[in-house]
Amino acid sequence: RKEVEQDPGPFNVPEGATVAFNCTYSNSASQSFFWYRQDCRKEPKLLMSVYSSGNEDGRFTAQLNRASQYISLLIRDSKLSDSATYLCVVNLNSASKIIFGSGTRLSIRP
Amino acid sequence: DGGITQSPKYLFRKEGQNVTLSCEQNLNHDAMYWYRQDPGQGLRLIYYSQIVNDFQKGDIAEGYSVSREKKESFPLTVTSAQKNPTAFYLCASSWTEEAFFGQGTRLTVV
Lengths: 110, 110
Description:
The complex is a heterodimer of chains A (110) and B (110).
Chain A: E1 4-6, E2 11-14, E3 19-25, E4 32-38, E5 45-50, E6 55-57, E7 60-65, E8 70-75, E9 84-92, E10 97-100, E11 104-109
Parallel strand pairs in A: 2-11
Antiparallel strand pairs in A: 1-3, 3-8, 4-5, 4-9, 6-7, 7-8, 9-10, 9-11
Chain B: E1 4-7, E2 10-13, E3 19-25, E4 31-37, E5 43-51, E6 54-57, E7 64-66, E8 76-78, E9 87-94, E10 99-101, E11 105-109
Parallel strand pairs in B: 2-11
Antiparallel strand pairs in B: 1-3, 3-8, 4-5, 4-9, 5-6, 7-8, 9-10, 9-11
């Protein structure tokens, strides 16, 4: 079983739609969680951290469910510029080991 | 400006040759990482280092080697034992939680 698993997509949704991604992780000792965004042929960049209490940044909301070991990302009122690959990231802080999911591709159509 | 610098951006290697990818950071981060990304795939961990003179194998370490003689530097050598080295290589560093990335090196075997 992979340490971090994501639905690879692609998700193809119309502009203005709401889209949600989930990500599951296998190690219950995981301590920090993030969503990164990666544009084609570029390095990943931090989108937002995920806290137990949830985290909202404009149109983006991230949630963590430790009991079920998954994190989620919700994008509201999607824009064409949201088209990218979204990577779920888990940090085993005790080992300083950062594990990436395989990414979910999102394509927003006009 | 603080950041992570990878060089070169593009690298071509003949089959059977070793090649070293450079990664330097001036963020004073203890942890550094090397990832490999194949087209349409996520990031896979090659090696990581939590501290100078110490490093750990990731999920796909075979055919690669690293050193961590200085806090700022974490070079990756792709050896001739790596059967399919053509890929996008990303270096990252971390202080506590999130990872910061260099711009990557595209390695092509010709």
